[in-house]
Amino acid sequence: MADRIRFGIIGAAGRGNSFVQALSANPATELTALCDVRQEPLEANAADLGVEHAFTDAGELLDSGAVDAVILGTPMPFHAPHAVLALERGIHVLSEVTAGVSIEECRDLVRAARRSTATYMMAENFTYMKPNVLVRELSRRGLFGDPYYGEGAYIHQLRGLNEATPWRRRWQTGVNGCTYPTHSLGPVYQWFNAGSARPDRVTAVCAMGTGHHYLDPRGDRYEMEDSVTMMCRMTSGGLVQIRVDMLSDRPHHTARYALQGTDGAYESGDGHEAEPKVWLRSRNEEQRWEPLAGLEEEFLPDFWKSPPPEALQAGHGGGDYWEVQDFVAAIRGEVEPAVGIDAAMDMTLPGLASQQSITEGSTWVAVPDPRNWT
Q1: Cα 122 to the chain's mean position, in Å?
Q2: Cα–Cα distance list, 354 to 177, 180, 229, 242, 367 (Å)
Q3: What gap in Å lies between CA 10 and CA 165, rounded to an integer?
């Protein structure tokens, strides 16, 4: 295909490599360049994939003329700077989460995205998990009524991974606050917005922690408190509770959610025995749960009814596959980005504001509206 989109992956010797299969499954894409600071695994990966261009500097890749789009699978502090560099060159960006690690660099990213002719999308893969997609469709059809309360939790003991990927020790557990909120907030944010004509964003947050009970292998205390809860006030007046816990000793439960509306309620499974369940007034006046899976045939969007093998094999509940397909469709002008620049900010900025809240004794802190950044 002469009009194939030429892709590069930055962070290709680590997380970025997980996007290769999704790209190869799309006939509109061609993987033409890889980039990573670790030269030996980079060159081995390029040889294995038959990719001609390999770079150890992101700027050199972006200036090479070898790519039309990039996927950023780099550590968190590089997401915004690399995205800005790409957007300034008219190169489309699919960025891993979070969008940025400070409000200031998020502002720079928003302005770069508004100036650029290229497409920006954040790769929040938890929004593509089948139960989350089904709940979003139910909300889009108004079956929950007006949503007014939600919960999301990311509970995943990552102390070992902190040592294997040291950037996490600085940017995830080295800052006190809700430092990694998008997996928890992203789906709930979409549920609140699915049936709404105007954006229902987080306007203020209040964060609190449980104290410190663990030391890292060097005997140092983690700066992040073991379990941080962030209360989020929505534009509509609704309330969302987000918990992030990457330190506590316990089995992980990385995708726990709840939604309450005037005409329905949802609670996710516990990852062990309990299955996702829902109550919708339109289906049952008696307030009684039914399995969420029983609604798939009637309400699940078509793309999840008969997914290709690549989607079923992809990580994060298929999200690593579907987000790439949506990004390609957005570049081609077929759809709007699933998590465009404003939504990316709406999922990222509350966590950054939570750091100020917890520092100031769990006061309520306003969350900037990226729509005002021009």
Answers
A1: 7
A2: 5, 11, 9, 11, 9
A3: 16
3-state class (DSSP) for residue 294: helix
Encoding tokens for residue 202?
């987080």
SS3 32: strand
| Average per-residue pLDDT for the chain | 95
Q: Shortest CA distance to 63 belongs to which of 43, 84, 86?
A: 86
pLDDT digits (tens, 9 = 90+) for 198-245: 889 999 999 999 999 999 999 999 999 999 999 999 999 999 999 999
- Cis amide bond preceding 98, omega within 30: yes
Two structure tokens written together for 235: 């534009």
Print burial letters for 212-251: b (CB count within 10 Å at least 16), e (below 16). Answer: eeeeeeeeeebebbbbbbbbbbbebebebbbbbbbbeeee
Give the global pTM. 0.96
Place of tokens 């560099």: 85
Residue labelled with tokens 């939600």: 150
